[in-house]
Amino acid sequence: xxxxxxxxxxxxxxxxxxxxxxxxxxxxxxxxxxxxxxxxxxxxxxxxxxxxxxxxxxxxxxxxxxxxxxxxxxxxxxxxxxxxxxxxxxxxxxxxxxxxxxxxxxxxxxxxxxxxxxxxxxxxxxxxxxxxxxxxxxxxxxxxxxxxxxxxxxxxxxxxxxxxxxxxxxxxxxxxxxxxxxxxxxxxxxxxxxxxxxxxxxxxxxxxxxxxxxxxxxxxxxxxxxxxxxxxxxxxxxxxxxxxxxxxxxxxxxxxxxxxxxxxxxxxxxxxxxxxxx
Amino acid sequence: xxxxxxxxxxxxxxxxxxxxxxxxxxxxxxxxxxxxxxxxxxxxxxxxxxxxxxxxxxxxxxxxxxxxxxxxxxxxxxxxxxxxxxxxxxxxxxxxxxxxxxxxxxxxxxxxxxxxxxxxxxxxxxxxxxxxxxxxxxxxxxxxxxxxxxxxxxxxxxx
Lengths: 278, 159
Description:
The complex is a heterodimer of chains A (278) and B (159).
Chain A: E1 3-13, E2 17-27, H1 30-35, E3 44-45, E4 48-49, H2 57-64, H3 71-82, H4 93-97, H5 100-103, E5 113-115, E6 120-122, H6 124-135, H7 146-157, H8 173-184, H9 194-198, E7 205-206, E8 209-210, E9 221-223, E10 228-230, H10 232-241, H11 253-265, E11 276-277
Parallel strand pairs in A: 9-11
Antiparallel strand pairs in A: 1-2, 3-4, 5-6, 7-8, 9-10
Helix pairs in contact in A: 3-7, 8-11
Chain B: H1 7-15, H2 54-62, H3 93-96, H4 99-107, H5 142-152
Helix pairs in contact in B: 2-5, 4-5
């Protein structure tokens, strides 16, 4: 058990300076223990904190070790896919991009991105499917399929440790504004906005859950509850349903706009895909 | 400050002979902003005309599918491990608030503080994108409002 020590210091100013300190040892709460973990440093910036900061230390250990992190099973498969020829064009991702580490570095920060073709934002998953269908003549992957989760995680892994930094100006601006509006709008029978939980009450306990700031910088995350990686749109569905609101579909315009807003909220935090969460 | 009570509650209240202390200019509309009432008065009358059962209220308050008050409040419920700390500790609430004030805070806490995270437990309108299976429903029943109110009224300060 960890304890926190506070020193109550009394300074007596007279002819000289006498400082006497009395240590008071009190038991730390679970939340304080988590907050005191020195590993947090690279997962916080200013008043922003990654979901990592709110996880138990076993969950953090799992995330910190690529061998223990179960998401790497999906990423390893995606690495095989990267150089596997598929589709009518007889190509693999590697045929054009070669080394995934170099080719996909920094790409996590480029999506969701304004797409002049559809005049909407597109998420990374949409881009990956375009590469498959248009350039390879291969079949698209489903949003929440093992292949797509693995490939999206593999691409974002190449930005791990880089700060989140997304473009929200120019043609992306109106979509960003819609995402922001979504974030602050109350919904469902429980009548709560994302901000009610993740802004106003981050750090507080909702029964057995510590509420985090609901940051996006670890997605796709491996969630222990799901026993597999999941997209941030899957998380949105869960967070909508828990307030008894009708969710949108994965890949919907609404969720893609919301994703852009969340990227902006996470600005400055380091990418940590694939994160591990409870 | 005006108090907004949904029409179905009002009909329920009126049916049970509940008299509203409205200002003379109260605007009655088909929908929601029905009456101007004083928030300070709370909701003095039982929603069902029946007294609440504190024992049932205690379990409805704990039940995750009903009140789930423990999600946000600590309560003197030692057999439950996890108590939230989003709202104030409800132990001692009966020494701070009257029955009328407690009832209103359960029915529609937004009448007191429109920015609160606390759900409106007995309201059916002014919601956005409610899941189909919950449409037109309230989170708890009128009798459960009464039962939980009765339970909270047992939570007096010990000293």
